[in-house]
Structures are given as structure tokens and as C-alpha cells.
Amino acid sequence: MNEGINFSVDRHPRLNESRGTAAPVRAVLHVYKVNESAGPRLERSRIMHSDGLATALASAAPSALNSMSRNARSLFTESMNWMDDYYDSEAGYLFDFSATSALNHDTRSSVWYALGLLARNKGDDATEAEKIITNVIHAQYEDPKDEWYGTYQKEPEEPYVGSPHYPAKIYNSWDPNWRGFVGTTLIMAMEEYSAIISKSTQKLILQSLYNTTKGDEYRFGNTDNTKDNLYPAYSNPSIMRAFVSGWTGRRLHEKNMTTSGEKYAQDIIDLFNRADTLSEFNSGTYTGVSLFGLLLWSKYLPEDSVMTKAAPGMIEHTWEAIGQLWHPGMKNIAGPWDRSYGYDMNRYLSLMALWFWTLIGKENSSLINKASPGFMILDSCTDHAQPQIMSHMADYAWCPLFAILADHHQSLIPKKVLSGLKRFSGEHTFEASAYYPPFDKVPRNITTWLSDKLTIGAESFDEIAIGGPSQNQEAFNPAVVQWDTGKEISFISLYPTETALQTKVGPGQLILSYPNGSSGSIFSLLVGTFKSKRTISGWEDIAGLKVAVSGNVNTTYGLSFGGQYGGSDSPIRDFEFWNFTYTMPAGFSGTPSLTLDLEIS
Q1: Is 315 in a helix, a strand, or coil?
Q2: Where are the domains positioned within the chain?
Q3: Model confidence pLDDT, tens digit, residues 169-207
Q4: What does the DSSP assignment read for 280-345?
Q5: Would you say 131 and 123 are in contact if contact means Cβ atoms under 8 Å apart?
Q6: Is the full-model pTM beyond 0.85?
Q7: Which fold does the domain 65-421 belong to in CATH?
């Protein structure tokens, strides 16, 4: 498949603008030594990169930490020190971070850790990084007849995907998005640290990126949730796909790859430009990935790329929305959330928390610190983040990538937004529109009201499936209330059960209605648990919030509990909750509606 492709490590994807061809570059390290006979004068010798000099280059090259800002450096250092304890040098992989993996390893986090090793470059870091990278690439799926061609193993212990007793199941036994997660990281390694990577490993990386890009060409959008669902509206993997294709095509002089990346990027840009919003809107996790991808667009591609031109504006507009939705006092991005891994960013590890760390410091992000009130102090000697006690903690492995990009990122964020991230700006209302075809029949309209202790956010939509574009009822939160009880941030979230919802948000009020509803419709409101009252029997027991319910629903409601150790419901994304369920009267006809009037108590 790769015959005829020149994987020369002396090429570079940034174009020579005047000639329109790839500008050849070579990794050059300037090593200084003292000329003792002439006194303490520095002399410079030029060492050209070769496999035989890889160790010398690595030992002489400075650590990237020296050029990082204070916040980026603390994020990098804490995360790398934490991951060091999970590294299995004998295997050349990180152990899986979860507590249920029985000493299995994880591919994706290992590659992210490898990039961190290259950046830190202390002792044998570079050698271990190359070990990880070569292990991961050698396990890449390389059979072009397979749909998973070009993606990477999820763990080195797993059987071959598609073998008789290990069937191929997308987003389970194999994940097409891992082409982007791993591929973008390999490109960062080539861009930032090629001077300390051997030529043989660089060639291996380029071969892997070729396979990754070709494999991504197999991807297609499909509304069947058992098949691939990559449309340009699926923001985070789409942005990564366009970048990897554009970068790899330029590096290998593969014009079709370059053109494909540019055209796919233009589709993403056109969707964004409709209302200056990501199609995959307002996710504590995936907005973080989309920003990561847009930073790659802006930093590592030539000026003539549509990605380079569009990325700064897309980053700026995305942060203008984040700045309005981020509540510094509650340390949460207010709802609604298209895809979420929890109901309170103080309790699950979101990628946006890592970006906030780089911008405003760990203490102002939503990442749990050992000194955080109400949480156990596990280590009295040092002040450090504790991802291991948060839900979805595996995303902590992203930290080295974010730290490396942090200073470039900050330069693209409007100063007005940056200055407002530490202190709540006061009561205000945010409005936006987002569009995710083909799942959205019409654009979604978003309104969020924020006050000092209470936020209410909701979106109106009409879609072809229940559970948002990801068709995931647990992840899609179309109407969300959050408030500060004085002891925790609690929530009310509408569990999606309909394909269409109309909402109206105002100060202290949320109105919900189902335009396609019927007498069988229900309103299922998931409510957080409370430290001050573990057992509740109704709305009157809700801590810190007065709730009045009206509408054409039955005045009585069902109440159930979703607990880790019992209850008729099960926790969602590790969060326990109370479920208030409203049904419609017998023989009802019309549009089901429910109104919540809310007041901090």
C-alpha cells in the first residue's frame, strides 16, 4: 500500500510560499562547549541528526519546560509526575488508569505520555518515548480491506479486531477517532521534538500517519448508531481528521490527501460560520478537544491553508461563548450540554478544566485540589491535583499536549474573555444557535440565564433521533439547572425522551414543551444528591432551592433513586441522582408542557 511513497524525514509540510513547494528542512542542534585555552568563550558546533547521534541529541537538547508559562508548566509537571507512577517500562505502555483493568495497558494515554517525555527530556525520557511510539505504531491496523485500517489498538492485550472470537464493533473493540487522537500527537512530536527523535522512528511515524490518513478516508456519516457517524458536524474528530490529512499530504507530497483535508475543513468552517458556533456545542470535554484541533490548524499548517486562515477566528468566537457560559464562582460551564460526562465539573474531570488551569491557574479551575473544602486530603506534603478521585479521570493524560500548546492558545483568546474568567461578571443571559446536520432538522436555539448562585440553560430542537446527534440519552442534556447549595453544586437535568423540545428560559424560570408529544409523554427530571439531606421525599427537601412545578402534567409525580448500591435507577456517568417523573393525564391531547419556577433559598 505504501510502495512509491517517499517517507523522507527531511521534508516539512509548511510550504515555501514563493515557490509553492515543500521547503526542505533538517534537524540541526547547536551544541556549545567551553574553549578552555582561550578562556570561557563559547564555541558552536553543528551536529546533523542521525540515528547514531539520537542519544547525544536528546541529552543535549533543552527541556521544553524552560519556555512554558507558570500555569502551563505546573499542569505539565504535575500530570507527568502523576503518570510516571503508571508507566510500565518493561512493556513500553502506561497501565490503564481505571481501577478495574487488572494491570492492562492503554494505548492512547501512552502516546500522550510519550509526547510529554519528549518535552521533558530528562534522563532516558526520549528513549522511553521512542519505545512507546514504536510499540503503538507496530500494533496499528494495517490491512486496507478492514474498516478499522489505520486506527490503533485500544490496549496491547486485546485480540485482533475482527477475529472469530473478537468481533469488530465500532466505538467498542475499535474506535475510528483514535486515528485522530494518536495521529495528531505523532504530528506534534514531529513538529516540536524531531531533533531528539531518531530518523528510523521519524520514518515509522510518517508511515503510520499515511495509514491513519488513508484509513480516515474510509469514514462516512450514517444515522444508524451501529455504524460510523462522522459528519463535518461531529466537530472534534472532524477537525482532527482535516488536520491530519492536510499535514500528512503536504509532508508526503500526496496532493490528494492535502486537497481532501482542505475540502473537509471547508465544510467544517462553513457550518461554524453560520452562527459562529461549533456544531458539537458546549461540552466540558469535547469543546476542549475541538479547541485542541483548532490550535493545530493555526500552529502547524502553512499560511495558504484554509485551516490556518479560519482557526484564529473560530477559537476567538468559541471562547466568547465559553466566557459567557463559564461561572467562576460555581466552577462550571452552564448548560445546556450537547455531550457531557457528568453534571458538575467539580466532580468529573473535563478537558475544559485543563484549559482553564493553563489560563487562570489550577486553583481557579474546576479540577479538585488536595486542599479543596469538603474533600479528603490524601497527601499532606504537596499541593497537587487529584484526578484519581474524580469521574472520567483518564482524560488527565491530555495534560502534556495542552501544556505544550497553552501559550499559543492564550495568544488567540480575546483579552476581554481572559480577564473575565476569574470573577463572575454578574447576572446575564446568553443566546446562541448551533446546527448539526443531518440530525438537526432545524438549527438548535440556546438560551442560558446566569446569576450569582443559580444558572438555567436550555435548547430548543427538532431532531431525527432521541438523545441528540450522538443518540445517547445519558450524554445529551438539553435543559439544565445548576445551583450552589452552600455545600455542593447540585443540578436538575431533563433526561431526553423526545425528538423535539421547545424551551423558554428567563430569570428563575424554565418552560419545557414537547411539540410532538402525546398522552404518553413524560418529563424526567434528574436531581442531584445533597450532603445535608441524604434522604428526600419531594421537592420540599431539595437543599438550597425552592422549586414550584406547574403545567398541564399530572400534579403528582413519581420519585425514584439511582444509586451505586441500590435504587430502581442506576447512576449516570458515576453520578447518583433522584428522578422526579411527571406523566400526562389520561386521555390528554395537546402539547405537553411543564414549568419550573426556581428561587435560591
Answers
A1: helix
A2: 65-421, 428-600
A3: 999 999 999 999 999 999 999 999 999 999 999 999 999
A4: S-S-TTHHHHHHHHHHHHHHHS-TTSHHHHHHHHHHHHHHHHHHHHEETTTTEE-S-BSS-S-S-T
A5: no
A6: yes
A7: Glycosyltransferase (1.50.10)
